[in-house]
Amino acid sequence: MSDPVDTSSPLKKGRTLSRCRYASPHSDGGMAVERLTDDLLVEILARLPVKSLCRFKCVSNHWLALIHHPEHRKKLPQTPAGFFYGSANTSDWLLKSPVRFADFPGRCSPPIDTSCAFLPNHRRVHLLDCCNGLLICRWYVSAQGDEFHYVVCNPATEKWTVLPDSGKPTSEVATTRLGFDPAVSSHFYVFELINEHDQLWDPDIVGVAVYSSETGGWVYKEKKWNADIRIINRQSAPVFLNGYLHFEADCGGISPCLAVVDTKGETWMNIDVPDADALLDGFIQRSQGRLHYANFQQDEDGFTIRLVVYVLENYQSKEWILKHSVDTSYLFGETDSHFRLDQDFEWIAIHPECNMIFFNVGWFITFTCYNMDSGQVKLISGPVDGKPPYMPYVPLYAELQPLHI
């Protein structure tokens, strides 16, 4: 006789029920157990990272069917589909309509309505930010005027909600960003970084207004960084991770840093970035659940020699760990004197789940992918006429209570 199976943990219980699913389908009890097994497996799979979930597609045909079932897909984490981009640079660093979309290489994304035509009576919709499947847009009341409302929407489900006004003049808002993590909560946050209004050029950030979909209101908090902070690189969009908004900044007018603020405006940090004297402003993005920072190093003669990628180890020590390094000659080959990285290079994305970097390079824009694991440099078709910012997008099929008309 076999030993009894311990069903104290969900995973072991799921394993037990997997044996039960082969009970006779002619028995009502057998069918009930089979349904219970599938629901339990989906619940377990929903708690796995996307990378691990993809590996489970090879387990069996039954598990593959579970993952691809339309109802189950609403609960399971999704792989990145691609990124939004525009066709012209904008001074306020948003994507003006019409917004374009490009698939990640090897991906065939579901149809995405980048025009947000599901919004009733929509005129002009400008995309401000994208975070874990949700978008925040400026929804203009009329095609001629400048009056707008913030709208947070999910293009995969075509659900949306209009936010109340924060009370801050548009002229004082340096940038507006979205924070959302479905693994933690169904609620989202909107951040307005507020400028010092009496400065005309590169004004300091003096505070943050935060909207919470849980409370339905805005709060404003004055800045508590231990230095003057101003945005220096709008090409590198802020990143929401671990309940914090991160953005690159000029710290005290001396050196670049990473500025951090939480969703309640209670925790403020400024963290030095690696290679502060590098050629370019760096590039931050969330990848594999951690904050990544990429930049180019220079030699003593000022020549760009190496691409480096770091990961933030923890917030207490403010320590960065070098993840990857590669010579620029390997990436770009021998370039002529007319090629300058500070003018002819644009970051696009660090893949949210893989060790891959996407960028545009050269006078004749070339969309390029670099795989840090294999060392492969690949020229790929894509948005050759694209302009930053580029916003990675992961479909979200879950129904969220905060999104309603």
From TrEMBL:
Gene3D superfamilies with a match to the protein in the record = 1.20.1280.50
The family database entries (SUPFAM superfamilies) matched by this protein are listed as:
F-box domain
Source domain of life is Eukaryota
List residues of the F-box domain: 36-76
- Pfam families per UniProt: F-box, FBA_3
What is the species of this protein? Triticum aestivum
Q: Which residues form a coiled coil?
A: none
Q: Which SMART domains match?
A: FBOX
Q: What protein is this chain from?
A: F-box domain-containing protein
